Structure formats: structure tokens, C-alpha cells
Amino acid sequence: MGLEHNSDTAHSPDVAEMRALYRAAEARAARLRFIIEARNLLDAQVFETAAPEVLSRLSDFAGASRAELVFPSLDGATPVRLTIGKQTENDGILFASEDGSGLCLTLIGPSRGRTVGADDRQTLEVVAGQLADACSLERQAAEKQALLGNLERQRSELAALVGQLIQAQEQERQRVALDLHDGSAQLAAGLSYRLQDLAARIGEAHALKPEIDQLAALARRSVADLRAAIADLRPPELDDLGVAAALRTRLDAIDGMEVIADLDACADRWPASTGIIFYRVAQEAITNVIKHAEARRLVVRLFEDSAGQAHLEVIDDGKGIGEARQSQNQERGARLGIPGMRERLALLGGRIEIGNGASGGTCVRAFAPLPQETILG
Known about the structure:
Its EC number is 2.7.13.3. By secondary structure, this protein is of the alpha+beta class. The chain has helices spanning 2-44, 47-62, 118-182, 184-202, 209-233, 236-240, 243-252, 272-293, 321-329, 338-347, 372-376, and strands at 66-71, 80-85, 91-98, 104-110, 258-263, 297-304, 309-316, 351-356, 362-369.
């Protein structure tokens, strides 16, 4: 019996130490669980919803009779103040934390009651830091959302202004086309009819008959040129049918070369401003091919890709871009019109690429983003 008693006495300090270690481990585990639960609450809910619950748990953890949390409001107005419990006369500050984010946490309790130990204070500081981080993240998210809203609003305003600008340009083109039709075209047509009538009346034997015939032919050519210019200024197909149909009509009128048109009908559903600009770019590129490329084959593609971009390709097998520039520079006032195409596409946030084709000639590629509602439609 004595040996057994001595054995228990000898091991009793170890048991006490193990119990103390066990209690300390339990306390650490409880603190860790508290930190994790607070983090989970802040992650699962918006800050304004989670903050009162976390504040209540902080108050219980510290044995506080009153807890107060002050943090900046999302709209930048008066700071938000959350309070839990009531303060009594004998209460004092158990814990206070404030960082540069503007969040302030204060726990108040009996000054002669439970004191906050070093480990508990460290736990409170960790959770206070979590509160500050969550508040800062939500404020940053709100600021980001506000910036995105402003950018979207500015994008919509810019799109509206671009549409108004393009519409104004097209209205001016239409006005000029009407003026030409009612003025110069009518005069040229009248002159042509008068000259033809005069040639018929003077007879074949008259000495001026050949010259009058030449003048009549020149007048008829002027009428044809004026009508072509009027159609280019504002083709009715662009208003009635859309950009693909208007381009097809333009390409059908080309003689002297093989023309391949791959025009997706979806382009006719593009916004009016996009359709007009792509038609004008195609019009300029096709005119360059006809006048300067000396091509035998012309390929025009118009389509919309899966990423929501409008595309135009004009490819010929004639002179390369360098040769075309050189020959044009020899003509006074001649120009490729590339700056004009770039300026038009820039209005849509698009761009143009011009280079040599795979088998010679020139390849013009233009693309621009389509509005989201057009893509989804």
C-alpha cells in the first residue's frame, strides 16, 4: 500500500500539468472556433447584416455589458453606429480597436469584473481586423460597382452621341442627294433631252450634227454620274433593307471583274449607326479597288463572330497597297480614304487593318464591337 501511495504522489504533478495543458488547448480551440465562426459570418452575408451578429458574439466573448461598432457608410455620409447592451456607472473600457479604415470597435464592461487576458485580447484584435477587412472590401466593391455604373452610363451616352452624329451626317448626305436630284441632275437631264431633240431636228447632213451628238452623249454621261453619286450619298436599300442588302446592290452593279459576295443576313439587324459606318467603309474600299487596284476579282465578306464583333473584309487580286498608293500619289488630289475609314470605325470603338492579300492584291479588314442587346437578340 505504501508503494502504491508513493507512486500516486510521484505522478500527481504530471496529472495536474496535463490537465492544465488540456484546459489551455481547449481555450485555444475555443478562440480559434470563435475566429472562424466570425469569419464565416462575414463571408456569408453583406457587412451590414453580419456586423450586428459578430458584435453580439464579441460582447459575449469578452463578457462586456455594452459593445459599440462604428464604421464608414457606403455612401460616404454619416458613419454607421451599431450598439449592443447598456453601460452602467461602474463600467469601463475592456477593449478598444481602431484602424486606418475608419472602423472603431469598443467593448465596455464592469471595471472590477472579468479582465481581458492577453490571449483573449489577441483574439479580439483578430476579429476586429476581420471586421475592418470585410468593411473595406465591401466599400471597395461598392465603389467598383459605382465606377462600373458610371462607365456604363458614359458608354450609353457616348453611343447615343455617336448615333446622333452619324444620323446628322446621313441627314446631310440625304439633303445633298435631294438637292442634286432636284437641281443639277434635272438640269443635266433637261440638257441631254434638248441636245437629242436638236440633233434630231437639224438632220444628219448638218455640219454641227457630230458635235451636237458628242455633247448629247456627254450630257447623258453626266446624268448617269449624278445619279450614281446620288445613290452613293444615300442608297435607299440602306434604309429599307439594311447594310447587307445595300452592299449586295452595290456589288451587283460592278462590271468588268468577278465579284464574290458573302454577306451574312444578320448584319441587317445591326444598329443603324453600325450598319451605316460599315457600309461607308465598304463603299470606300470597293471604290478604291475599282479605281486603282486593276483587279480581276473582288471578294466582300460581312459577318458577325461569336464574340459579338461586326466584321468586314474586302479582298482583291490587283495591285498591292504600296503600288496603289504610288499610282494615286501621281494623281493630284487623289487619296485612298484610309483616314476617313479609320475615323468612322473609331466612332464605334473599332479599327481597320490594311495589308497585302494572301495571293497578292490588298486585304482590308474592319471590325467593331456590337452593343450587348444586339448580340443577345
